[in-house]
């Protein structure tokens, strides 16, 4: 959900306590619509994020690291020139509107003090970051708004800054009677929408939550009685008094329907497990997780795109080599034709389209052999021997290439399954590094996508870990590098190794030199099935054997192993069991 004025009020009040009188040490602009200020209070450093992104606009202190471009944006250079070394004197919010002003004391080119205003407008696609002098003359702004863009309100250097037209009432200045006037004037509009349109700081979602917690009505209802109107007005007065005193908490909620996450400062009936005393910490956590999820999605799409291209190419090659190999099985026929023509050459004359002879390779049955009418019998013999040798050589080569293509396809499908299983950037980076190493993604392309170092990394991220109902530890690789680690480095000969048929994770039961119960093997098989290409099937086949029966062939690609003396068990993939047994870190 978008940041509303209530949550912004809580965040700004915290900032007043934390960064008032802070010095601006550094300024970075990681994206064109986001600026980071590194602030110093005594010896403590804080990073303030101001984002004017249309969907993720916000102000908050952050504890997470970020990457910055080598070449700064021009607006960043302007801010550095005028604000580095400046002091934040105060922070003000315009009522409950999403407009925040940082009062700043800076020095000009002559090293004389001057007062500046850094004004942050957080209004969706109209969000902006503006710097003015003490007389509110605009010195610069992140987004220039010309007359062509907006005939109502322009934002350009040299203009005088004016607040947007105020159309909503400030709840902090309202009495119970004022609230009642708004509630009773709703007409046919839904009550939540009416409140949102008339009161500052209240988003439609916040209005719905207020109605639900106060008088227990759904957001689409508008018909309420006088008693309910009175109670709602009283609750609005109480809520905004509590808000002004800083007694309101913030939450990150997870929808029970679609598992989407939202944040709020009001109870919504959703899972309220993630409560935060600090609005800044809540905003930092929410947007960092959202950006991380987006970054993982983008990297997955990038890898999947290259995998799809490589898989289609390999499948095409496999088809070509398979057809060539099948055709090569006719090679012996051409040798037989040549031998039979040689044996009957005295009967053949030039210009004959074919000859029928007895086939001493097939119980002396008659066989009709086609001839090239332009060639002599001897030349026809040579032609058939030539076809035989050509197909024989092609068969040998095509079999070799067919096996290589099949092995390559197995590897690519295995990686494709791994991409679906992983959920961290480090694991995706390992997959990307392996694909670069194997030549499926050019290093140059990876560097163009922003990787500082496209060379494969040596470290391995931790595999998924589980604890069976019988107390045995189970490990599962979620990419090929983890698979190799689980199978080759984490294991001992007496451990139980499992793998679903087809692409999937390597799963290992640590036996501790004890006999592993059948129930643990069954649970590990379910894990292997859930982390395989069979995860959406009703029944998956999983092989299992002692680790001593598993080995890696010389020169084999990451995650590719051979095994023998195995048993097969059929199980149904169960993701609820997967999560129940997972060891939380």
Would you kindly provide a written description of the structure presented here, covering whatever features stand out?
39% of the residues lie in helices and 21% in strands. With 585 residues, the chain is α+β, with helices and mostly antiparallel strands. The protein has a six-stranded antiparallel beta sheet, with helices on both faces. Helix 3 packs across helix 6 (226-244) and helix 7 (279-328) runs antiparallel to helix 9. The longest helix has 50 residues, at 279-328. The chain is elongated. 33% of the residues are buried.
Strand and helix layout:
Elements: H1 5-19, E1 23-31, E2 34-41, E3 44-51, E4 58-62, H2 74-83, E5 87-93, E6 99-107, E7 113-121, E8 128-133, E9 138-141, H3 176-184, H4 191-198, H5 204-215, H6 226-244, E10 250-254, E11 261-264, E12 271-276, H7 279-328, H8 331-343, E13 354-359, E14 365-370, H9 377-421, H10 425-437, H11 443-448, E15 464-467, E16 473-476, H12 480-489, E17 496-500, E18 507-509, H13 518-530, E19 540-546, E20 550-551, E21 562-563, E22 567-571, H14 575-581
Short description:
The protein is an alpha+beta fold.
Counting helices, strands and paired strands, the structural category is alpha+beta
The largest beta-sheet arranges its strands as 15-16-18-17-19-22
Average pLDDT rating: 89
* Radius of gyration, in angstroms, nearest whole number: 36 Å
What shape does the CA trace take? elongated
Catalogue the unreliable spans.
Answer: none
Which key terms come to mind for this protein?
585 residues, alpha+beta, 6-stranded antiparallel sheet, 5-stranded antiparallel sheet, 14 helices, elongated
